[in-house]
Design goal:
single chain, 239 residues, 11 helices, 47% helix
Length: 239
Amino acid sequence: MDCSGEERAPSRPLSRSELLKRAGVIGAAAAVPAAVAPQAAQAAEELAQLQQMKALSPGEASTIGAFVERLIPSDSSGPGAREANVLRYIDRALASDLSAFRGAYTAAAVAIDAYAERKYGAAFAALSADQQDTILREMDLNQTTRQDPSVTRAAGASTADFLPNAKAVFEMIRTHAVQGMFGDPEHGGNTGFVGWRLVRFPGPRLVISARDQRLNVVPRNNLRSTYSLPLFRGKAGRN
């Protein structure tokens, strides 16, 4: 990003790692050319979100956020993890019901970035989508290579490896990402019911009408949190 006043727009969107490294640019947004200002505003918003995490550090949130956005990407079929605020769900859950996984996520973020550095020379969030997908695929198939301690010590690099293995780390994050994408929005994810709309879930109801039970009938949407129903009202674990 060029803040000198030259008519020069960035060639690609800022990555999360760049947002953290360039945080000082945000305060000078007024000095950025008009063509760059929208990206500066987006950078400020995303940085603020990273700094408002309840459990994850900004660095951990950067890595895990990029990871879940490749697990459930936004594409022609509809919105993904970003729009559903899956990262927010995971962070809130780690601060409450999923607190037992807090240490595992710290280790996972370190291991993912260490593997990305070894394989491509940059942190996971700074990689291209294709490179990120390759890492996800290798983790899912448990085909990541382990580090050579003698080489990493000589190079001064991190010696973090996936624990207990890459597949287990992948499944942990995937499970929680699916919860955040398709769970009740009361818990911080599925913002705007984007996950339910994606799979055509019409919303929770206590009574299924005769019409909705007929074949070849699309149920009427009743998109609202389960906790708004009288039976469950006031029982949500709000955090």
